[in-house]
Amino acid sequence: MSETTSTREKKPPLNGRRALPPNNSNDEENEVPELDPFGLIPRGFNPKDYLRVVDIYMFKEPHEINKQQHHTDKYYNPKLIVRRGQPFQISIDFNRPYRPETDQFWLEFLMGRYPQQNKGTYIPIIVGNVLKPGEWGAKITHRENNSIRLSIMSSATCIIGKFRLYVAVWTPFAILRTRRNPATDTYILFNPWCQQDAVYLDDEKEREEYVLNDVGIVFHGNVEDVKSRSWSYGQFEENILDACLFLMDKAELELSGRGNPIKICRVASAVINSRDDNGVIAGSWNNSYDYGVAPSAWTGSVDILLEYYSSKQPVRYGQCWVFAGVFNTFLRCLGIPARLITNYSSAHDNNANLRLDFFLDDEGKVDTRLTKDSVWNYHCWNEAWMTRPDLPVGFGGWQVVDGTPQETSDGMYRCGPASVQAIKHGHVCFQFDAPFVYAEVNSDIIFSRMEKNGTQVIEKIDTTHIGQLIVTKEVGGDGMVEITEEYKFREGSDEERLALETAVMYGVKKQTTRDTIYQPQSDIDMDFQVQKAVLGNDFKVTITFRNRSRNSYTATTYLSGNIVFYTGVPKSEFKKHSFSAKLEPSSSSSFDVVIKSTEYMSDLLEQASFHFFVTARINETGKILAMQKATILEIPTLRIKTKGELVAGKEMSVIVEFTNPLKQTLENVMLRLEGPGVLRTIKKEFRSIPMNSTLTWEIKCIPMRPGLRKLIASLNCDALRHVYGELNVEIQKP
């Protein structure tokens, strides 16, 4: 009785809709019998009389043929890792020489708890004489004594993940299998080197950058003042591959769908953020990071992914570049070419109508109650490279994917993959989320004011501010390359007009300005410049008017300085200044407004980001001129240097130095340092750093891998964030 009940308990509950439960965990396994009889086994049957597998050798060391040929030698993982659609080698030792005339054996690759041949989770491979490119098969390349060498070809469309390998031998009465051996587990990844793979990339330099480079650059700051910092992707570090496969289990992506990069990108863009599925990173944009790490303190993806893999709980906290950095690690780790993109002056348009509405009150000040849209100083997302067989020809190549939770798509916080080519040409009807990305790079900013009688008066339309600079890291270097042209045609060109009309035809809402009055003051130009300044210093804003008419005018001018999050959302107004400007005919005049450090230091947010609105009412005509600009302060950097010989396997020292530039003591300062292949992330807290004093931190480490490596450090405390330093080091071979 007990025998039957225990087997009954193991069975999954019946489900009228499907014969088998969902197979969506790469981690779970089924039991595979070592002896699989065809019926009754006769008494005299002895398995030892037949061909038997003694040992399987996988050639899985980094220096051996498989990992070398498959570009997987950098993975810090003892098991075999190969890329699909390309042959790999194994050898099998039998208990006696193999006789092809009478002996029959085959290989079995299995994945998940319910392997099925038609789902691609059970793959039997018969040994033949020839390998067909891009299809499963095996052939014997060498026979010697009791062992044979096999070349195995995987399908160029097979599932990505970890397979279990068995060797099965046929006997007249039963199938004999090797017992479960984790040492022969084989990871199969995407293959950008294989022409039949959906992620094939034909340029070797680009493959080295977008698949094999484990550090990158995040561009931040704003259009007027582009800043950069390094980010350690660390896709080859220990346990990262398993952590990335776990993300697909977490997202409950059916194993049978895991050969498709489109599906993988879509579910990953949801699971990278913690909204609605308890995904990897919890976002926080409110400047308080209790019980977590400030987004600016992270130096790379490894700590985040490993913490999530072990705790299964969202890691706190991230903002757009953190989501994008971790997403990039995930994509490159699985073999999908990927890069991190920064869009400067990125529109977050709440009602997707291709316009950001800034409402002014009677004095010309921005009305924060009514204004819901915001302009992010910058926004980071990713591009992944793949074919799009689900779209018409011509929309493959780079696809936008975004893990930052901004708006829902099909009921979840996710975005993409959206074809960059489709966005450029306005073909926003093609899945997924193209209208949202189109608005991020193409919206207009409209300043308007309500008259007492309820009519809306448009004071200014700015068509060029949004998405004016889109950049990524250059291939093979740390420089910046502009890719704005890949997203949009030149401002004001016929093609741009056509792309907009196409987008509107396909349902992007573009409100006309016909029902509103728009008669700007055309004979006066206003501009303003913000002086570059270091955090903690005073600086000035210079407002310039150019009166092109023959009339004299007076302008009541109003400057509002706001401390903003990098998302453009204001935290507080720290400066109000108004003055009357006399504008002589046919001449220019400038006016300076001084901003003192005491006015902004107490409220400063971590990216030291300001947003200035300048509005001027021309008293003679009642017209309003309006302009807005974001600016950031220079933040001091960390200095990194090394001491001792830089040789793999030998001890060396890394020294991090920082001088406090502020007119106050910094408290509870957290330093982080990491460098893929040189040292794991190290953290240290310093209680206080008095003003003008210098902190020195020395760490000893033993670099493991030779070659050009990067050390990345960050400093973080409540009064000062986004302090970085980096150093390229060349580690010699021993």
UniProtKB/TrEMBL annotation:
SUPFAM superfamilies: Cysteine proteinases (SSF54001), E set domains (SSF81296), Transglutaminase, two C-terminal domains (SSF49309). Its main location: cytoplasm. Its EC number is 2.3.2.13. Binds 1 Ca(2+) ion per subunit. It is found in: Cytoplasm; Secreted. Residues 1-38 are annotated as: Disordered. Transmembrane segments: none annotated. One of its GO terms (biological process) is blood coagulation, fibrin clot formation. Its cofactor is Ca(2+). One of its GO terms (molecular function) is protein-glutamine gamma-glutamyltransferase activity. It comes from the Eukaryota. GO terms for cellular component: cytoplasm; extracellular region. Ca(2+) binds at N442, D444, E491, E496. It catalyses: L-glutaminyl-[protein] + L-lysyl-[protein] = [protein]-L-lysyl-N(6)-5-L-glutamyl-[protein] + NH4(+). This is Coagulation factor XIII A chain. It comes from Tachuris rubrigastra. The gene is F13a1.
